[in-house]
Amino acid sequence: MISVKARPYDYTLDPGKTALVVIDMQRDFIEPGGFGDALGNDVSRLLAIIPDTAALIGLFRARGWPIVHTREAHRADLSDCPPSKIRRGSASVRIGEEGPMGRLLVTGEPGNQIVADLAPKDGEIVIDKPGKGMFWATGLHERLQDLGITHLVFAGVTTEVCVQTSMREANDRGYECLLIEEATESYFSEFKASTIEMIVAQGGIVGWVGKLGDLDAALAGAEETA
Ligand code: TIU
User: What angle do CA 107, 58, 45 make, to 5 degrees?
Assistant: First the structure.
């Protein structure tokens, strides 16, 4: 077991039973002309976490530990998208409509691809999810169980929407969850800060939040002493 400095107290992970989950680092949310932009958000804040997220992915790749990439994505016929989701918000372009990067939030479209710097490699799990949470209609829980995964490290966007929903769903399914602070972002700085406080409140009611450098140091330190 490896102990990582975190809030509200040290997080203990089990090597071999730990996977990284990178939530929705797709062009739709991170680049101008995507869904995030259509909803009226300034997407530039999200671009800034790409280097730290790449470094986090690198820690897992170096060890051959499982990596899951998710995309918020709907089928081309939108049969997996509730009409309520399409109606919601005051988007200039709605889900399924044509934007500068193709049809918004539709699988296979240019905007639905994970940003180039974080592109999945062969052997990594890529999940298209129709909801904000990563378990609804994806079969991911069964895949993680088949791999014997008990611990999940989280990154991605946005902190208070798809990351928080996925982390709460994972917590309810019994996973021990750690969110890496530098590898997640929101369009609203105050929402990121509040989400972090919600996760660690009440003794870690949803899980733990830690820093990339502390995870790196803990993993490297454990290998030195092994
Ligand atoms: N709008 C917003 O903050 N997020 C989403 O719609 N999806 C994700 O968080 N991925």
Answer: 60
Distance CA 158, CA 186 (A): 5
Cα separation values, 27 from 34, 106, 173, Å: 7, 12, 29
The span from the CA of 189 to the CA of 215, in Å, is 23
Ligand 1 atom with least separation from CA of 158:
9
Ligand 1 site residues, Cβ closer than 6 angstroms: 24, 29, 39, 72, 132, 157-158, 161-162, 187
Tokens at 153, concatenated: 């490290």
Question: What is the per-residue pLDDT across 14-51, written as a single tens digit (0 to 9) for each?
Answer: 999 999 999 999 999 999 988 899 888 999 999 999 99
- 105 neighbors 35 (Cβ within 8 angstroms): yes
Q: What is the pTM of this model?
A: 0.97
Q: Name the residue of 161, 168, 179 whose CB sits within 8 Å of the most ligand 1 atoms, as the mutation to test its pocket.
A: 161
